[in-house]
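Predict both folds.
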Amino acid sequence: IDEIEALSSIYGEDWCVVDEDEKIYCIKIGDCLDQPKWSLCLQVILPPGYPAAEPPIYQLNAPWLRGQDYVQLANSLEEIYLQNLGESIIYLWVEKIREVLIEKAQSSGPEPDIKKTTEEADEADGDDFLLEYQPIQEDPIQMLNCLASESQEGDEELPPIHHGNPITDRRSTFQAHLAPVVTPRQVKRVLEKLYENKKIASATHNIYAYRIFCEDKQTFLQDCEDDGETAAGGRLLHLMQILNVQNVLVVVSRWYGGILLGPDRFKHINNCARSVLVE
């Protein structure tokens, strides 16, 4: 309670109470310029065990924040938590995020590159449940080519692919697909195999994340892809980090049904992924 009162007085109108009973709060953070170019919204839920035994549950929301930017920022926040176990950390998180935004403002000339997501864009044929088959605009497989080429093991076996149960809400459908992987080449092969399926290839978004544990270096090789659904890949990877899963690729396909779902779409993406991981 003392922490919340302090944060409220420090950040004033940038601090917002979303739900007092559930301890859900939101803070808008900018880069400190007179006309901020870079800003994002940090939403936190303080669980009953915070700060003594549990970390805050958080979301980072900004149109420009996706892929590697999201992963790097999330990793920074988790490091702060681990360095300050048992202590109140929201202020440290906010100032770390502000530091990153100021660095971006100082190092970049143009405005943030904001790619419209499907939910923000006008949908021409929103009433059709399945869009006509069309190639993925930014082929995620291209991104894996250089990593996969480093693997010297030739044509590796295609891992088994497990398909989770679909979730449908207001005519949007979400389905997760999972495969065990130990090399980037296997990630590439699984993605290629999935995109051979005309229905999966026609999904509005195919969001994915993978984590591979490298025994020799004792580190994780991990990456994620939003496929146009801003920050969804980073959230998916964050879920995998929380569940401490390794040597696995998760892909969540979403077929947009013409009705905006707002934040619920992230809940469905995570629930799909969680179900398939637990199975």
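Second protein follows, with its predicted structure tokens after the sequence.
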Amino acid sequence: MGKLGAFLRLARIEHGVMAAFATAVGCAVGAGGWFSVEMYRLALAAAVTVAVEVGLFVFNDVFNLEEDRVNAPDRPLVKGEVSLREAIALGAFSLALGGALAAALGPAPFLIAALAVLTGMAYNARLKKSGFPGNVVVALDTALPFLFGAAVASGVRIPLLAYLFTLTAFLAALGREVLKGIVDLEGDLRAGVRTVAATKGVAYAAKLSSALLLAAVSLSVAALALVKESALLAYTALVSVTDALFAYVSATLLLRSDKATAEKGRRTTLLAMFTGTLAFAAAA
């Protein structure tokens, strides 16, 4: 695919697609159901999400260029497949496009998109090595598509269920980010990244990660009270799988906080977040 393939790898387009799906779920929750979603607004919202994700990932590689020369020599910028000027132009265009399309969707979607851009750029430029504050930003930007989608469908009158799903996703993503700090401990210590595992120890990080994951489980159960009856069975089935996976990871981390256990937990939580998104989709 040549140059196009290099741009797609730089943009990590698969992350944008996953975030766009979360936005679609948010739209359905905000609209009161999938059949109530206005398709043209959903298409615009998905375009905003992909554009913002692309812009943030491109600038992540721009700011990380020197580190990637050592840790990720196969990245397009490092290999020279994409020039630094081209990357900056793509990132700036993507963020500008995302902002313009978000503004067309209304003030509430625009403000949420702006929050994602500002926090994401702060992470790229300053917060990546800060440890827990950086984890918070990554978790926030992981969860915001649900809230953004709901705002696209309902403006400022966002349903309580959308807020609950957003907070659940935030806690789960934050727990996973803390967990990843255990897996990446050796490299983070060399790079000066102040993760919870690096500053407080792996046992403390494991306990914190477990607590955050279990808090997400609790909120997902609380959401049962807000899910409409017609969707209750599907949501319960899918969220039960999600919660069982999170509970399993939490239990194993409390028993053992070594790198191998954390790596298994990292993979399992990724699966749990996927099934959790499907549960949110079913609840809409």
